């Protein structure tokens, strides 16, 4: 059986590949990448590398030839080539190539979420569901690394701000989500949907955990969205303000507040605490 991981040179993809190598024979592992030269430098030597750009349907179909199980890692939004079109190319190529099973990294409760970030995932899930392919939707909550600036500011003993109120997020390190994805890819009887999430916490609790790691006093202030925008502008982040506010908004609306045991059940181990994760990732 051949297992493939798309976008394999990214952080998520690299971890998934390394995990997969521990679960199956290395001869069965294929890395599908946009830049083979880069992949040869950073991926384990025993991994077969194939070129597969999400914007090149014919290239993708060739890359998926002979692949039975595919880990389809979603692309980043905001590019010149729309993400939903990229994803539809992957789905079509997988179907044409005869892939038997696709595990796709999606958004929490993508079928119900209303934020802009969930839209492309909803389109992709629909296309996969209609493709006839056997699938598993890996609905990842929030990577701890997404809050790098916030955490590093707390570690430096500086004040931080948030506009999410008491809404919760299931933060966990990106590597943990990637390890779980690889395990689903090789599972004998995978579920159709996995709501992957770390322990639920608020931004105030995130600040307290980071402060504990840094041995400093937390100074986290809840502010209104208007005040948050003003702070971003004062910090020179005016260009990114709309995106950051949108993310704060979806968190404030509770789109990430979905407790789940799926992640620890797939990994068959207790998840690290928020403090432990921050210490491992940022110290």
Tags for this model:
single chain, 283 residues, alpha/beta, Rossmann fold, UDP-galactose 4-epimerase, domain 1, 2 domains, two-stranded parallel sheet, globular
Give structural notes:
- The structure is a single chain.
- The chain has 283 residues and is α/β, with parallel strands linked by helices.
- The protein has two domains: 3-140, NAD(P)-binding Rossmann-like Domain (Rossmann fold, 3-Layer(aba) Sandwich), CATH 3.40.50.720; 142-171 and 198-257 and 270-283, UDP-galactose 4-epimerase, domain 1 (Alpha-Beta Complex), CATH 3.90.25.10.
- Helix content is 45%, strand content 16%.
- The strands form three sheets. Strands 3-2-1-4-5-6-10 form a seven-stranded parallel β-sheet, with helices on both faces.
- Helix 4 links the parallel strand 4 and strand 5 (101-106).
- Helix 9 runs antiparallel to helix 10.
- The longest helix has 16 residues, at 116-131.
- It is globular.
SSE map:
Elements: E1 3-6, H1 11-23, E2 29-33, H2 36-42, E3 48-51, H3 57-63, E4 69-72, H4 83-97, E5 101-106, H5 116-131, E6 134-140, E7 142-143, H6 148-155, E8 160-162, E9 171-172, H7 174-186, E10 193-196, H8 203-214, E11 220-222, H9 225-234, H10 241-252, H11 262-267, H12 274-282
